[in-house]
Design a protein that fits this description.
Order of helices and strands: HHHHHHHHHHHHHHHHH
Distance between the termini: 43 Å
Oligomer: single chain
CATH class: Mainly Alpha
Shape: globular
Number of strands: 0
CATH topology: Growth Hormone, Chain: A
Helix content: over 70%
CATH superfamily: MFS general substrate transporter like domains
Number of domains: 1
CATH architecture: Up-down Bundle
Radius of gyration: 20 Å
């Protein structure tokens, strides 16, 4: 008998709601690199200060993701995500008011937006969806949610470029506030699923959150997965934050950067859906390993080929296919090994590592540019990290944990 993809109407509702939440949150987040010139010329903040703001944003995003994950597991995702959207709105509003000093700038774009992303972007919505789907269909469902972020990646950079040129950056941010209100309303439909133990195992049924964390950190595969996801954060944040600046330095037209980000968005749809499907058929760790090796190859070719519009757009297509395709198999491995009872919490920890990588990707990109007048060192480091990630996933044991005794305190 074939297994239904949607077990009930609640699964449909939460999938659609999560997709819209991620579309708004991640779509806006993808466009900050297109504002660096306005922050530099109109507000007087340097490239390093902008890079540091994004780096701080990544740290708070990553730090709060496990916290929001724990709260979502306990109280339900709708309350948590709605609250995070309120913080998001306030952070963008502060930017509209033109921060007068570095502290205000870092607080708005860095701290507040970062905190908000911890609750609205990826880890909480995706894990909430994962609880409504079987192990067979989970990676496909999370791939659909991740693909909705890709639609945001495709549409919002084009909108930001058009709106910035036509109406100015401040009015563009005001439009963002309206979009964030829409995201908040969608978040109210992120339903909570009470955990039901289907393993008939008392140790699984009685497991607490601290015991789940202890179990995870004693698992070699979990630590390797966490280390690998660090690289994903470094790479995508380096590209999203500093690709516009890099394109300007190569002498290509300004629109090329927005086109790259949009191409990443549209082709990420195909990449995440394909990876979600493949992850339901094949070893997730092997797929992740291949993905990181392919990223290294894409970066090498991007740097080796002569600078041109065609090379830049080709990079956008290739990197788009590999962009967030890491998420379905990464989330799927966590659920496959440890179950779904504390999936949001455990994936939140893995995502924290992702954001530590994002911190370095955002900060070092700006730092290397200001110190050496080039982004090349950041690209070289990204290539080395990609090879590391490709290797580190191979030893992961994907088999589900068999709980036969309580975890020692």
């Amino acid at each position: 008998m074939n297994e239904k993809f949607f077990e009930n109407k609640k699964a449909i509702i939460i999938l659609v709601a999560a997709a819209l939440v991620v579309f708004v949150s991640m779509g806006i987040r993808q466009t900050w690199g297109l504002f660096y010139n306005f922050f530099e010329t109109d507000l007087g903040f340097s490239r390093t200060q902008f890079g540091l703001a994004i780096a701080i944003q990544m740290v708070f995003w990553g730090t709060l993701a496990p916290v929001f994950g724990f709260l979502a597991d306990r109280f339900g995702p709708s309350k948590v995500v709605a609250f995070a959207f309120l913080i998001y709105i306030f952070g963008v509003y502060m930017l509209v008011q033109e921060p007068k000093n570095v502290f205000e700038f870092q607080t708005s774009l860095g701290i507040l937006v970062g905190i908000a992303l911890g609750g609205t972007a990826m880890s909480v919505p995706i894990s909430a969806v994962g609880k409504f789907f079987s192990n067979k269909n989970r990676t496909i469902a999370t791939g659909l949610v991740t693909a909705s972020a890709s639609i945001g990646f495709f549409l919002l950079p084009m909108f930001a470029k058009f709106s910035n040129d036509t109406f100015g950056w401040k009015l563009t941010l005001e439009y963002y506030i309206y979009l964030l209100v829409f995201g908040l309303l969608c978040s109210l439909f992120l339903l909570k699923k009470e955990y039901i133990d289907e393993t008939n195992n008392q140790f699984t049924r009685d497991q607490t959150a601290p015991k789940a964390l202890q179990e995870a950190f004693q698992h070699k595969g979990y630590k390797l997965l966490t280390a690998g996801f660090f690289v994903c954060g470094f790479q995508i944040t380096l590209v999203a934050t500093h690709m516009p600046g890099y394109i300007k330095e190569t002498g290509l037209p300004d629109w090329t950067a927005a086109a790259i980000l949009s191409l990443i968005g549209i082709f990420n749809i195909f990449g995440t859906l394909t990876m979600g499907y493949l992850s339901s058929k094949y070893s997730k760790k092997i797929l992740l390993s291949w993905l990181y090796f392919l990223r290294a190859i894409a970066l090498i070719l991007f740097l080796l080929f002569p600078s041109s519009i065609y090379v830049a757009l080709g990079f956008g297509v290739i990197f788009g296919l590999l962009w967030l395709a890491t998420i379905p198999p990464t989330n799927g491995i966590v659920a496959q090994i440890f179950g779904t009872k504390y999936l949001t919490t455990l994936f939140g920890i893995v995502f924290f590592s992702h954001q530590m990588g994002s911190f370095l990707g955002a900060y070092l990109g700006g730092y290397f540019y200001d110190q050496f007048g080039s982004y090349d060192y950041a690209w070289y480091l990204s290539i080395l990290l990609s090879v590391f990630a490709g290797l580190v996933h191979l030893p992961i044991d994907e088999r589900p944990i068999v709980r036969v005794a309580p975890i020692n305190s």
